[in-house]
Amino acid sequence: MRRGLSLLEVILAVAILGGCLAVTGELVRMGVRHAEEARELTRAQLLCESKMEEIAAGVAATESASTVPFENDPDWTYTVDVSQLDQQQLTLVRVTVQQLESDRLYPITFTLSRWILNSSSASDETSTATEGTSSGASN
How many angstroms separate the Cα of 134 from the Cα of each of 35, 129, 137, 139? Predict the structure, then answer.
């Protein structure tokens, strides 16, 4: 009757175990890299939304800008593209946020576009509404 394992069986078991450990280690490394990328993409999205809300609220100027670093986070820059539409009295504002220094082949970027009513047309509508109210009150 045979007892124990042969040398070939032990070598085969160690090779299978080593292969499984190598594959598991690579999966963990990929998971960490993708989690970091998702965290950075979320940061880019939050910065982009913040800048877009500043522009929409009138806190920041509605004008084009190129690769301007954020005051609170100098590792990121933003670009603002403004396009006017005369017929619709709308302005297309496109904000793009990009990571400055990255060891990636393609750095993290996030772009957000939004139509904003021109400030001159908004003041025209306000003055028209005010005039309509005052003329109705005088009758």
Answer: 59, 9, 5, 9
